[in-house]
Design goal:
Blueprint lengths: L6 H23 L1 H6 L4 H8 L4 H24 L8 H17 L1 H4 L8 H29 L5
Helix pairs in contact: 1-4, 1-7, 4-5, 5-7
Length: 148
């Protein structure tokens, strides 16, 4: 790892990986974990019934979070540069920040999710989005170079 790695993007990668791990926990440990994390009673019941829907949805989230963690590591200079790193970091930043501030509009679409879920997950999204934003801003000149 580069000793000059961007600490904000490294932290963003860590939190993305941690969020992915929590989602894997939901898949492995089932309904109680879905309930604990506030995903709603319907998701918890479906997981307890052995239905595939919660596993598929949660697995997609895990994959996305891990890809985003790798892009954060790439942008930080901790691993080899991935394709379209600049574009990916900007997009990831926007998605996290948008998710963090738009929860009020999203709440009616997912009525089973608890208020605690919305407040905690939105706060986490804002934190990770801010880490991506600051880290990307700091790395921007380096990200423009071919072999940076």
């Amino acid at each position: 790892m580069n000793s000059e790695s961007n600490k904000f993007l490294l932290a963003a990668a860590f939190f993305c990986a941690l969020a992915a791990l929590a989602h894997v926990g939901c898949i492995v440990f089932g309904g109680d974990w879905y309930r604990f994390f506030g995903a709603g009673e319907q998701m918890a019941r479906m997981a307890e019934q052995g239905l595939w829907y919660p596993t598929i949805v949660t697995s997609v989230i895990v994959i996305i979070l891990l890809i985003w963690a790798f892009y954060a590591l790439s942008g930080a200079g901790a691993i080899k540069r991935l394709p379209l790193t600049r574009l990916a970091l900007v997009g990831i930043t926007c998605i996290f920040l948008l998710r963090g501030v738009s929860f009020v509009g999203l709440m009616p679409m997912f009525p089973e999710n608890s208020l605690t879920f919305w407040l905690v997950s939105s706060g986490i999204c804002l934190l990770i989005g801010a880490l991506f934003a600051v880290g990307t801003f700091q790395q921007w000149p380096k990200l423009g170079r071919k072999n940076a």
